Amino acid sequence: MPEQASAQQPAIRCRNVWQVFGPGAQDHLAQALKQTGGDAGATAQALRALDLVPAVQDVSFDVKRGEIFVIMGLSGSGKSTLVRCISRLIDVTAGEIEIDGEDVLGAAKTRMTQLRRRKLGMVFQHFGLFPHMSALQNVAFPLKMQGQARAERLARAREVIELVGLKGREDAYPRELSGGQRQRVGIARSLAVNPDVWFLDEPFSALDPLIRRQLQDEFIDIQARLRKSIVFITHDIAEALKIADRIAIMRDGQIVQIGTPSQIVLEPVDGYVRDFTKDVAKGRHARLSSVLTPLAPDAPPPADDPGLRVDMTLDEALSACMSLYDPVPVHGPDGQIVGMVDPAELARAVQVDPV
Ligand SMILES: Nc1ncnc2c1ncn2[C@@H]1O[C@H](COP(=O)(O)OP(=O)(O)OP(=O)(O)O)[C@@H](O)[C@H]1O
């Protein structure tokens, strides 16, 4: 059992994961896979014909260490089921799942309990706080389950309560807190054990838009400091684009595209993905790195240099070069020229698709 994870090893590795609900699912799946030669779509169809529900179909992906991997999709597309499979809240019907190189599907129940208590953090839309415990007691509770001494666990609980901006409300009971504050307690509680891998299932969906945006900002801030490996479910494209390093789009139990926010916005693989992003202001979300043409090593230095950088959004870049006609250079983090972009193409790229 590999305790020491190498830097290159993904935090989570899923291969050909299936979750099929209904009686005899495992046998029916094996049989259908054999009959269809492993074709996921045909297998799912065969299972549906038997009144089974193929909620997750042949899903494969890696979550890199320290990244925020967002799973997006319409209601019923299988997001929650997939995350429950990874954390083994439910047993998968078929496939492989590793966390830090450890095969969690083969792990004994006691080992899974240990992983859940020490390594995996979970936050759900509904806060699930204990109503008879103060914020501090709620946050310290998982540490009690770990067997930590009282003074130690209360000190740690105070630390994470401060981290989520609730200092001063330690003694409040859940009923005395707003929705946003309760969700902060939920986040603090799951952070208390310092998990390596963090699952968040629509954590901000129940909150009103203003508080939601505030919590997203704080979440990004916390992640910049803690660098957890995160799987974050949402059905809100704006939220996904804001927080994700990469986004997986699910439809009917399958992942149809995995990409950076820029790729999802600028290069949707089909109409389903395009529909999610059609109202998104592309210029605000896509980075210049996604549209530049790499510079040939012996290319002559360009005449005009408006000082574009790869990390600029398309809007920022366009406002710096919109009066120019010829391709302009784009600089990398060290200032060196890494590519070129044509202002006219940039202007085309930021256009929102006609609705
Ligand atoms: N225990 C279960 N038994 C049978 N079917 C289930 C079960 N749990 C989920 N499903 C079905 O699996 C499919 C995927 O559901 P899931 O909750 O994973 O979707 P979701 O994308 O998370 O949706 P939402 O955004 O509404 O939470 C749905 O068709 C759902 O009805």
Number of domains: 2
CATH topology of the largest domain: Rossmann fold
CATH H level of the largest domain: which superfamily? P-loop containing nucleotide triphosphate hydrolases
Rg result: 23 Å
Please state how the strands of the largest beta sheet are arranged side by side.
6-7-8-3-9-10
> Which ligands does the model contain, each kind named once?
adenosine-5'-triphosphate
Count of alpha and pi helical runs: 14
Amount of helix: 25-40%
Residue stretches low in confidence (pLDDT < 50, at least 5 long) are none
Estimate the global geometry from the Cα principal axes: globular
**Element-by-element helix/strand order:** EHHEEHEEHEHHHEHEHEEHHHEEHEEH
Can you count the beta strands? 14
Mean pLDDT comes to 88
- The assigned CATH architecture of the largest domain is 3-Layer(aba) Sandwich
- Taken as a percent bin, the fraction of beta residues is 15-25%
Instruction: Report the end-to-end length measured between terminal Cα atoms.
Output: 52 Å
Largest sheet: 6 strands, mixed
- Derived from helix and strand composition plus strand pairing, the structural class reads alpha/beta
